[in-house]
Design brief:
4 helices; mainly alpha; 102 residues
């Protein structure tokens, strides 16, 4: 998708989520900039969202990621993200929820 990325990954219990995301963002930014895939300098937005799923749900999550264009034809990423926050009972301040890139 042009405005966001869904990433399914496993992680070791001795790695913090924020460290994992920091390393993914740093490595991918460096690669994208070195490869000159975009005009100007690429950088990720400051925040991120993460949701955990059980092994039994992996098939559904994979299918969702593979078909995200269909999902986003019906609702925006922001709408979907707020639904996930509410589904998982995450308190949030609307001022800090993803805004479309300019």
């Amino acid at each position: 998708m042009p405005d966001h990325l869904h990433l399914l990954t496993g992680m070791r219990p001795d790695v913090s989520l924020s460290d994992l995301v920091r390393d993914i963002k740093a490595g991918s930014s460096k690669f994208i900039n070195k490869s000159r895939w975009v005009k100007g300098r690429f950088s990720w937005q400051e925040g991120f969202g993460a949701f955990s799923y059980s092994r039994a749900q992996l098939g559904a999550v994979i299918r969702y990621i593979q078909n995200q264009q269909k999902h986003h034809a019906k609702k925006s990423f922001r709408e979907e993200y707020v639904e996930l926050l509410e589904k998982f009972g995450v308190e949030y301040d609307d001022r800090y929820v993803f805004n479309n890139a300019e």
